[in-house]
């Protein structure tokens, strides 16, 4: 794979890496072919990360249009042949540490993956002087202009990567009962700004009449010194406000902040798809050339504030096959009987491995056995504590790596 | 070292007779013009002072592989009197710097510490008279037998490759250098990549290539391709001198010895020089 990004896009790319670094320690770099419709040969580059607990996943998907130049290389007729690399985010972060100096100095950036040497190479072609930059632009417009007109420092970084199966999460966003869209303003960023940086989790409560965010702390850990913050927003603050199921979802705020600052810097509206507590919540932004998604697990907490669960939600007793108790909210809780019939999902990232898609029903008893401190459920992967050995098979797998049984912890 | 505090003896009232006992008297209205440049070479405890009629040279060495020299010409000083051809002594540099900054090293405008540095000769301490806002401090620093600085026998005629760069561009590279790399490799060549800094760290390799024709490169004179590696730990101290400088000259001779010369402007706009010599890392062969 070989791609070239010009100036401003390098900054966006850097921001994506910053956002992904809030999620996990490793980054999956996945050049791919595909898109929503399999017939369209759309070239894309996906950057993904997942946290150690497998309760947060992020994906930045850049389309071909984002790049000045993008090619998969000679041995890549089908997506299956492209290399999927795993890199340590800590190695990449220093390259994009100072985004303002990137904006000022970097003319273009070239990223290439070399399979024989197992290396990813990132090259920055820097400009030295603003006046000379104009000259450079003229050069590049001229036909047959030399493609390497270097007027400043060229920085070449190469990293060893680990070849890895693609990371993917499957999230049935289109069938979520609750869909919000925050406008392309700083609405969500400004709202979460009121929570201290150390705040781990927040609870988002929604009814058709209002949305509120409050900080979450574990029950039994009531300290008199905690400052409780609650922010309410009326539906008219949002571009879209569809509440099918009143719900309170608690998720990790820290992992979301990266996406929110990305959205703010690109002036993009943020879409939120979620259901009842226990089901994952998906935050996403997109524009013509890129799409960013963060999927977070939410707490199952049967004690959470009163009648927050609507009667439609299935009783939390069946660990699996909730088909029988499927709520009218849709096929979201459909059993795993016919995975192949699952309709194409806009959030779905094309799986080159064709892993089965399993919908997670609400988690029941197995989760009740988990101690309060590990109640983050609705895991994206087969990754639960060892106490759940038996239940592990029964627990829903939102996403899977095709032939992995061991966990990466 | 011992300190005397006195409010009754401004520097200017010292009598001429007292001066005659000193082999070296050097005065500065602003002690920072000395302390800043000494900070740039303060990577080891001891410094060798060597004064001639040309001025003061301060040398610091590390493990026989690295040597730093700071040159403060006689013209920089408000007074520079030397009664012998060569005056040499060794002091603990950290102590000297502490004394030069004894008034707190504040950077308030118009406020500076005045310095009068006096040395009677072999066996005597180095006496510093420091004054700020009417308060005078006298510091006497024990001197030691000066060690012989290493002579790297670096001469211009043996220089294979030389470039002069604007410090800004080198500062950028040095601030980003991968410190997990044990060595810094410097490639100088009349052909591509011309001038390249490379690191080989835990996560991967990095190369910084400087084009030969750009504003950053004030002089480019490379005759032969040379690739040399230098221990990162030895070169790390040079970043202090780089930070103070406006221009750097990078020269490598036919043995691979690296000479870095930094042009430093002091508070009053006067030019001083700091130079570093570094031996190549033993394990590499020149290509």
TrEMBL record, chain B:
InterPro entries: Cell_cycle_checkpoint_Rad1, DNA_clamp_sf, Rad1_Rec1_Rad17. It is found in: Nucleus. Gene3D superfamilies: 3.70.10.10. GO terms for biological process: DNA damage checkpoint signaling; DNA repair. Keywords: DNA damage, DNA repair, Nucleus. Coiled coil: none annotated. GO terms for cellular component: checkpoint clamp complex. Pfam families: Rad1. Transmembrane segments: none annotated. Component of the 9-1-1 cell-cycle checkpoint response complex that plays a major role in DNA repair. The 9-1-1 complex is recruited to DNA lesion upon damage by the RAD17-replication factor C (RFC) clamp loader complex. Acts then as a sliding clamp platform on DNA for several proteins involved in long-patch base excision repair (LP-BER). Belongs to the rad1 family. Component of the toroidal 9-1-1 (RAD9-RAD1-HUS1) complex, composed of RAD9A, RAD1 and HUS1. The 9-1-1 complex associates with LIG1, POLB, FEN1, RAD17, HDAC1, RPA1 and RPA2. The 9-1-1 complex associates with the RAD17-RFC complex. RAD1 interacts with POLB, FEN1, HUS1, HUS1B, RAD9A and RAD9B. Interacts with DNAJC7. Interacts with RHNO1; interaction is direct. This is Cell cycle checkpoint protein RAD1. The lineage of its organism: Eukaryota, Metazoa, Chordata, Craniata, Vertebrata.
């Amino acid at each position: 794979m070989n791609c070239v990004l010009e100036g401003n896009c390098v900054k966006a790319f850097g921001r994506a890496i910053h956002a992904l670094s809030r999620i996990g320690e490793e980054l999956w770099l996945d050049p791919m072919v595909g898109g929503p419709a399999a017939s369209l040969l759309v070239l894309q580059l996906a950057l993904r990360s997942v946290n150690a607990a497998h309760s947060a996943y992020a994906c930045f998907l850049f389309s071909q249009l984002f790049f000045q130049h993008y090619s998969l290389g000679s041995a890549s007729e089908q997506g299956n042949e492209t290399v999927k690399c795993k890199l340590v985010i800590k190695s990449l972060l220093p390259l994009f540490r100072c985004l303002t100096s990137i904006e000022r100095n970097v003319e273009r950036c070239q990223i290439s993956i070399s399979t024989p040497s197992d290396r990813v190479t990132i090259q920055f072609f820097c400009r030295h002087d603003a006046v000379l930059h104009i000259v450079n632009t003229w050069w590049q417009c001229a036909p047959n202009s030399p493609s390497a007109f270097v007027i400043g420092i060229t920085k070449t970084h190469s990293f060893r990567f680990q070849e890895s199966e693609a990371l993917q999460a499957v999230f049935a966003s289109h069938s979520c009962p609750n869909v919000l869209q925050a406008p392309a303003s700083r609405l969500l960023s400004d709202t979460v700004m009121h929570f201290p940086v150390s705040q781990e989790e927040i609870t988002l409560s929604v009814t058709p009449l209002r949305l509120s965010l409050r900080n979450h702390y574990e029950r039994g850990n009531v300290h008199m010194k905690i400052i409780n913050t609650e922010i309410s927003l009326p539906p008219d603050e949002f571009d879209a406000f569809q509440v099918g199921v009143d719900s309170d979802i608690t998720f990790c705020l820290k992992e979301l902040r990266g996406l929110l600052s990305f959205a703010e810097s690109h002036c993009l509206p943020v879409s939120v798809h979620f259901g009842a507590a226990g089901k994952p919540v998906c935050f996403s932004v997109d524009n013509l050339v890129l799409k960013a998604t963060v999927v977070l697990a939410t707490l199952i907490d049967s004690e959470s504030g009163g009648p927050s669960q609507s009667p439609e939600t299935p009783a939390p007793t069946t660990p699996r096959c909730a088909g029988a108790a499927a709520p009218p909210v849709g096929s979201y809780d459909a059993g795993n009987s016919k995975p192949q019939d699952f309709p194409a999902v806009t959030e779905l990232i094309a799986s080159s491995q064709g892993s089965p898609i399993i919908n997670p029903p609400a988690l029941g008893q197995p989760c009740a056995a988990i101690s309060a401190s590990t109640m983050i459920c609705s895991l994206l992967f087969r990754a639960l504590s060892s106490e759940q050995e038996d239940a592990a098979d029964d627990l829903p797998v939102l996403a899977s790596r095709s032939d992995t049984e061991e966990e990466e912890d | 070292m011992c300190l005397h505090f006195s409010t009754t003896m401004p520097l200017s009232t010292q009598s001429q007779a007292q001066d005659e006992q000193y082999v070296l008297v050097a005065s500065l209205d602003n002690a920072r013009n000395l302390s800043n440049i000494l900070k740039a070479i303060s990577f080891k405890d001891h410094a060798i002072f060597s004064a001639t009629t040309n001025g003061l040279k301060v040398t610091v060495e590390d493990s026989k592989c690295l040597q730093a020299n700071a040159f403060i010409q006689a013209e920089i000083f408000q007074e520079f009197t030397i009664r012998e051809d060569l005056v040499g002594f060794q002091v603990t540099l950290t102590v000297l710097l502490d004394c030069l900054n004894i008034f707190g090293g504040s950077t308030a405008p118009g406020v500076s510490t005045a310095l009068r540095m006096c040395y009677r000769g072999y066996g005597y301490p180095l006496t510093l008279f420091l004054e700020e806002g009417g308060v005078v401090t006298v510091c006497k620093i024990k001197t030691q037998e000066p060690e012989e600085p290493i002579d790297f026998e670096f001469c211009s005629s043996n220089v294979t490759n030389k470039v002069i760069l604007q410090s800004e561009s080198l500062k950028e590279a040095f601030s980003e250098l991968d410190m997990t790399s044990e060595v810094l490799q410097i490639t100088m060549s009349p052909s591509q990549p011309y001038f390249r800094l490379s690191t080989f760290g835990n996560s991967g390799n990095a190369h910084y290539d400087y084009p030969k024709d750009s504003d950053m490169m004030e002089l480019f004179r490379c005759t032969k391709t040379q690739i040399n590696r230098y221990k990162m730990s030895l070169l790390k101290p040079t970043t202090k001198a780089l930070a103070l400088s406006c221009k750097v000259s990078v020269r490598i001779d036919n043995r691979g010895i690296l000479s870095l010369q930094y042009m430093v402007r002091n508070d009053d706009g006067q030019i001083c020089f700091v130079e570093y010599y570094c031996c190549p890392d033993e394990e590499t062969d020149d290509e």
